[in-house]
Design brief:
Layout (H helix, E strand, L loop, with lengths): L3 H10 L3 H12 L7 E5 L3 H16 L13 H7 L6 E4 L10 H11 L10 E4 L7 H12 L6 E6 L7 H4 L3 E4 L5 H12 L3 H10 L4 H5 L4 H13 L19 H17 L6 H23 L6 H13 L6 H14 L5
Parallel strand pairs: 1-4, 1-5, 2-3, 3-4
Helix pairs in contact: 5-6, 8-9, 12-13, 13-15
Length: about 350
């Protein structure tokens, strides 16, 4: 049997203080809390951690000062990942999306009688990675939940969810954390210097909870090389940077999207319309490619890397609007559709 106090400590350590403050404030607020929530953050890991804390709070039998106690039978089962009334959905290993069969099983789970209390809870991590069929299958549950069933979705790209799903959930948008607070937490969490904490935060493109998980030296080195390659793409000769082949395609797409978003934020307001247009088109191309892959498209790895590199190189080209348009059209024509 796992040591519950240690597990509780691990969960608290993985949860930054600003999330606990936000959870306490939200739970103490007035109004009907509903049966379905969509937790949104720019950091997918942060959204997932907050959703887990919210799930534990909802299942707790003995709230202490408005927060989960970590000691009751329900909390112990939650922390040991054996809770009979909680089901977690996420992309399965070897898959690129959450499929309809997973959602159908989850729907059946929510219809069963609760074991510990009155609530059955479904936790969906990275809900934007549901296929359209899976998302549509979840709609009936969101519209007509069984008994006291509760559905918690978390996402860093909620805009990719069908509007019908979003409209049936109460939105919990997590506020952006101040950099100083993020650095203080990272330094304490990882026992690193302020310089190292800032380096990790930069590698994670400002996503503090994701940065807190960067403990594997090989993964960190690969991420460092990847991020370091982006500012020098205009000078790259002879093909894509070697660092692009050292990470999974999903990691490359995510990092490239975050970097492009950062470049858009840095464009001077007076010149935004003129200078940001191509950055925004590049972002759309990368985001659409990422979406297709998440929903089951299987383009060759070398093709993806080559096309991304070509787009980045041609961002400053006068005809980039046409180039980007052709790329977006080709996603369907060349068998990239989901």
């Amino acid at each position: 049997m796992s040591d519950t106090p240690e597990l509780a400590l691990d969960l608290r350590a993985a949860t930054p203080p600003w999330l606990l403050v936000h959870l306490r404030e939200w739970m103490s607020g007035a109004g009907d809390k509903g049966h379905a929530y969509l937790v949104v953050s720019e950091d997918a890991e942060e959204a997932s951690v907050f959703a887990r804390q919210l799930a534990m709070h909802q299942l707790c039998h003995d709230l202490q000062n408005g927060m989960a106690c970590s000691h009751c039978q329900s909390c112990r089962a939650f922390l040991e990942r054996t809770h009979g009334d909680l089901l977690s959905l996420q992309v399965l290993e070897g898959k690129t999306a959450i499929g309809i069969d997973q959602v159908r099983e989850a729907t059946h789970f929510l219809q069963q009688t609760p074991m510990y209390g009155a609530t059955k809870l479904l936790l969906v991590r990275d809900a934007d990675q549901m296929t359209l069929a899976a998302a549509n299958s979840l709609l009936k549950t969101l519209e007509e939940p069984s008994g006291d069933a509760l559905v918690l979705l978390s996402s860093a790209e909620a805009w990719r969810l069908p509007p019908t799903v979003r409209s049936r959930c109460q939105l919990l948008r997590l506020p952006n954390v101040q950099k100083d607070a993020a650095l203080e937490w990272l330094g304490s969490q990882l026992q690193v210097t302020a310089t190292d904490a800032e380096h990790l935060l930069n590698m994670a493109q400002g996503r503090a909870v994701t940065a807190g998980l960067m403990t594997d030296s090989e993964d960190l080195a690969a991420q460092e090389a990847l991020v370091a390659s982006f500012p020098f793409l205009d000078q790259q000769q002879g093909g894509p940077p070697a660092a692009w082949s050292g990470v999974d395609v999903s990691v490359l797409l995510s990092a490239l999207l975050a970097w492009v978003e950062g470049q858009v934020r840095e464009v001077d307001a007076d010149d935004f319309c003129h200078h940001a247009r191509n950055w925004l088109l590049l972002h759309r191309c990368v985001a659409e490619l990422s979406f297709r892959i998440k929903n089951g498209a299987t383009p060759g790895r070398d093709i993806v890397i080559a096309e991304l590199f070509r787009l980045c190189l041609r961002r400053k080209h006068a005809a980039f609007a046409e180039i980007g348009g052709r790329f977006l059209s080709s996603l369907s024509r060349e068998g990239m559709a989901s």
